[in-house]
Amino acid sequence: MSDTSWQQAVYDVIKSGGINLVGYVPDAGHAALINSAKVDNTMHDVVMTTEEEGIPLCAGAWLGGMRSLLLMQSSGVGNCVNMLSLQRTARFPMVILVTMRGEYAEFNPWQIPMGSTTQEVLEICGFKVERVEFEADAAETVQAAIDFAFNSNVGVAVLLSQKMLGRKKWVE
Amino acid sequence: MLDRRVVVTELLKNRGNAAVISGLGSPTYDVAAVSPSNRNYYLWGAMGGAAMMGFGLALSMPDLHVIVITGDGEALMGMGSLATIGANKPRNLSIVILDNEHYGETGMQQSHLGMGIDLCAVARACGITQACTVTTGEELQSVAGNFHEMGATKFLQVKVNPDAPPRVMPTRDGVENKITFRKALGID
């Protein structure tokens, strides 16, 4: 990964936005950000068994004054639904970066049901949603999401489109 | 089998500045009844999330003793979080399961812990080495003695009677609780 990649630009705004904790369930589209968090001694990185764990993780961190951010795939949004009530009921600031599946050039039909309802599910649960289609917009959108969440006590999700992330290679 | 209110009293009476996250249902009533504090965050929902909420708080305030007090049904719903916590081993987090082997809030249906499942063994298998089951008053006194000494993640599975003491209901306003809790910790 070069220093000029969009992933590096996103990590830079995560740092400048005061985020000190990244919770994630791995996804290929998030691999660069996960690696950046893991090699950064000033960033807590927490791998979770399910995305649902991330909602109370972020809420608890905020009770102690720490800003955090979650990384998950679109399928993981569905795992969070009831737990999102914690964000909404107590108006915890929360930022989720979601790598999209089930759309552009998708190979695996099992990804389509959740991928095609991800944005709607988040919005029904009270999250503000921004979608990123182009690499050049990624860092600015994540920066805006961080500002929005922590200034206005809202949940904000940034959906990173499958077209931008690139086709998954199924056969090497 | 112990009385749940006695257990919470013994564990929290010398809490000092410790923070408490209570799991939905009876644990929230127990904490409100015997140790009311602005350093309590009372969950009324988010079932399965209490331990992770404590973990997030423990990461953000490494010198604060963070105590999660929750029920066996709530803990079972977030059983994977024991793996996440065990992989990180926060030295300032204690998880207390008030295990009555039943879902008390919904009509006392039996839980897995009354069906031979050993949650304490799960915690140990998840790398939480300071994990023990407490069934007698002597064992309770023994673990209460150094409960607030930090140094390793603690997991206490405390066997309690499946009775329902009088409900003491703290605020259900999650926003208000968030604001008062943060102020109590000195956070703007």
Any overview of this molecule?
The complex is a heterodimer of chains A (172) and B (188). Chain A has 172 residues and is of the alpha/beta class. Chain A has a domain of 94 residues: Rossmann fold (3-Layer(aba) Sandwich). Chain A has 9 helices and 6 strands, in the order H-E-H-E-H-E-H-H-E-H-H-E-H-E-H. Chain A has a 6-stranded parallel sheet, sandwiched between helices. In chain A, helix 1 crosses helix 2 and helix 1 packs parallel to helix 8. The longest helix of chain A has 18 residues. Chain A starts with 5 loop residues before the first helix and ends in a 7-residue tail after the last helix. The model of chain A has no long low-confidence stretch (mean pLDDT 95). Chain B is of the alpha/beta class. Chain B has one domain: Rossmann fold. In chain B, 38% of the residues lie in helices and 19% in strands. Chain B is built from 8 helices and 8 strands, in the order αβαβαβααβββαβαβα. In chain B, strands 2-1-3-4-8-7 form a 6-stranded parallel sheet, sandwiched between helices. In chain B, strands 5-6 form a two-stranded antiparallel sheet. In chain B, strand 7, helix 7 and strand 8 form a beta-alpha-beta unit. The radius of gyration of chain B is 15 Å and the shape is globular. The termini of chain B are far apart. At the A-B interface, strand 2, helix 3 and helix 5 of A face helix 3, helix 5 and helix 8 of B.
